[in-house]
Write a structure and sequence with these properties.
- By secondary structure, the protein is of the alpha/beta class.
- It folds into two domains: 2-156, 3-Layer(aba) Sandwich (Rossmann fold), CATH 3.40.50; 185-319, Elongation Factor Tu (Ef-tu), domain 3.
- The chain is 33% helix and 26% strand.
- A six-stranded parallel beta sheet has the order 1-4-3-2-5-6, with helices on both faces. It has a six-stranded antiparallel barrel with strand order 9-10-13-12-11-14.
- α7 runs antiparallel to α8.
- The longest helix has 19 residues, at 291-309.
Amino acid sequence: MKVLYGYKDLRGKLADPIVAIGIFDGIHIGHKRVLKRVLNSREPGRDRVVVTFDPHPQTVLRQRKRSMRIMSLEHRLCIFEKMGLDATVVIRFTDFIARMTPEDFVRRVLRGIGARKVYVGRNFHFGQKKSGDIETFKKIGKRYGIDVITVEPVKKGGKVVSSTWLRKLITAGDIEKAEKLLRRPVSVLGTVVSGDRRGQALGVPTANIDPHHEVIPPPGVYAVKADIHGKLLDGVLNIGFKPTFYGRRLKKRTEPRIETHVIDFAEDLYGRSLEIFFIKRLRREKKFKNEEMLKRQISKDIERAKKALARKDVVSKIKKYKCL
């Protein structure tokens, strides 16, 4: 899959592209419906393209310090490629882009890409202060020779599937319901960084994960699959503040740590990228009176994780979309 940045002078780099536009954060089943319309447009000689934005527009518009995105750009690009798209155009979302009128967006961005057919979701808005809706898009598109096709949203239990809903489920720890909106387990793409080696001292070495500014579930212990060297290995992951060791006021942590113990695996993973798939939440994080009690609980967590990860459908749900 080709990855192109910006929207200027792309006409020679894309072959009469059929385009889907959106942030596609999380790439849930609603997003997939739009993307599959592009993928199913098998017109010889035409590139099937997704146009996406980075950083997340809300980070710029609301000047948020924390990232709003469920998935990093790297993670989204991986899944776009897995789905079979020919190219992704990444547009840096800036104040300049935010101030574009709907007509400016069509004239500058879509004509710059060379798009003549565009698929968007029914609730798509664009241009300054989201002033452009679907009807506006179709009218402007007609003037510039662009066919705008709308795709109906996907509903679950009568509710429209959205990135906002998905984000709320993940941050609440309801990963099993979030999985239904994704049709794949919730996953985080991150890099193994140095830690305080508490796990190793307890006899359960852990890999500390920097999650690339992706949304993570709340503190707790989870049964996970870790993609290492292309193999899906069983693991137990803890997200939290290590209250057993850092409970006192002066030592209390302000940011949660993500630590993964890969079962029956001893290789050093420092500096490597891992994709972690959340299969089941086992329990909340809690403070133990001493290290011995914590070790006994970790042993129980490992056994519970093994049972949860033994389901036959776990690997099949992951393999289609895993990135590494």
